[in-house]
L,D-transpeptidase
Amino acid sequence: MQSFPMSAGGPDFPSRNGPHVVTELNRDRVMDSSTYGVPVDSPNGYRTPVEYAVRLNNNGEFVHAAPWSVAQQGNSNVSHGCINLSTERAAWFFDFSQPGDIVEIKNSIGPTLSAADGDIYDWAIPWEEWQAGSALK
């Protein structure tokens, strides 16, 4: 087991709590705020190349290298919802991760992952609730 200092989503863009699922691994990726409706040229906009991007849901939450936030990692949450790690730690996480792995985000000020977050919500349904909806009963 590893434990790394990180920075999650800040007050305006908090990370969602709950189990997430690794769905995609991108060695290099451009993060672009326009993909979720925030124009790149607006005050909260960005278009930033990152390394070691591990997608956690379809709303744009990733674990990725963020060398610009190393001073905040372990101290404060400053991202737009992603989990920021140092480049070395993000590379370790990228190499370790496989699609289908569960990544649980805890203690964020953000909401809990829900059906509004799309198809990966299945992983956030408590087992008792999942069983209650089973056609096998």
